[in-house]
């Protein structure tokens, strides 16, 4: 028996059958949000550990899109970890700011286009849920995947909009997790909703109306082009 096989086992959580991987991964995810709200660099390695567990949980219930999402999170968290460490070393603390309106429009367009493109790909390959899964389920899977990529990018760049991206993910993630019998994930997504609202308030208060500089947002060349 492999050392980590127990992650694939279920236990009863107030009458609900919950995978250990789902449970532990979401505990780490909750801790990640708490640490990110406080702008602590340690939030990134905690997020990586949680995503490893949630990757196992997603594979258990054949959520291919969500499994791929965890891989993206692990890769993006490694990059975000490096950017936050560098920013803290330069500024003495992790400095956050708002994205400019042109950048916001790019992020919204990327969310819509990414969801449509990824949804079509997952549907064509039958890689989301089960063969022949309805379009609405596949698009939900794609929405969460795309939203996570955008959330990870904006978090690494220290945009306040990072919290809004997670809010969009949560609004779809709760019913999808329950429908997929990942009940603990559904509960955690619900808790995330209120923590995200607190995150928006806290980061916004710290920034006022400050717009993130090119160094804190998109690469300088793209930011300059968007800003005219």
From TrEMBL:
Keyword Nucleotide-binding: no
Keyword Cell cycle: no
Positions of transmembrane segments: 12-37, 44-61, 67-84, 105-122, 134-153, 160-177, 183-200
Keyword line: Cell membrane, Membrane, Transmembrane, Transmembrane helix, Transport
InterPro entries: NMN_transpt_PnuC
Compartment(s) of residence: Cell membrane
Single GO molecular function: nicotinamide riboside transmembrane transporter activity
Organism domain of life: Bacteria
Membrane topology note: Multi-pass membrane protein
Pfam families the UniProt entry points to: NMN_transporter (PF04973)
Gene Ontology, cellular component aspect: plasma membrane
Family affiliation: Belongs to the nicotinamide ribonucleoside (NR) uptake permease (TC 4.B.1) family.
Name used for this protein in its record: Putative integral membrane protein
Organism: Catenulispora acidiphila (strain DSM 44928 / JCM 14897 / NBRC 102108 / NRRL B-24433 / ID139908)
């Amino acid at each position: 028996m492999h050392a980590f096989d127990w992650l694939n086992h279920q236990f009863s959580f107030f009458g609900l059958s919950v995978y250990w991987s789902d449970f532990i991964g979401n505990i780490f995810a909750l801790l990640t949000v708490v640490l990110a709200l406080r702008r602590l660099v340690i939030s990134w390695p905690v997020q990586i550990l949680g995503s490893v567990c949630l990757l196992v949980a997603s594979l258990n219930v054949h959520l291919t899109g969500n499994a791929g999402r965890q891989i993206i999170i692990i890769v993006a968290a490694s990059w975000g970890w490096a950017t936050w460490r560098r920013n803290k070393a330069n500024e003495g603390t992790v400095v956050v700011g708002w994205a400019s309106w042109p950048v916001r429009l790019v992020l919204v367009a990327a969310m819509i286009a990414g969801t449509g493109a990824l949804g079509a790909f997952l549907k064509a390959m039958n890689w989301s849920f089960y063969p022949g899964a309805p379009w609405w389920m596949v698009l939900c899977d794609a929405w969460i995947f795309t939203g996570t990529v955008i959330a990870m990018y904006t978090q690494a760049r220290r945009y306040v909009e990072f919290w809004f991206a997670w809010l969009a993910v949560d609004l779809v993630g709760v019913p999808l997790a329950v429908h997929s019998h990942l009940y603990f994930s559904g509960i955690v997504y619900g808790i995330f909703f209120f923590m995200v609202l607190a995150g928006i308030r806290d980061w916004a208060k710290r920034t006022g109306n400050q717009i993130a500089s090119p160094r804190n947002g998109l690469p300088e060349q793209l930011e300059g082009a968007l800003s005219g």
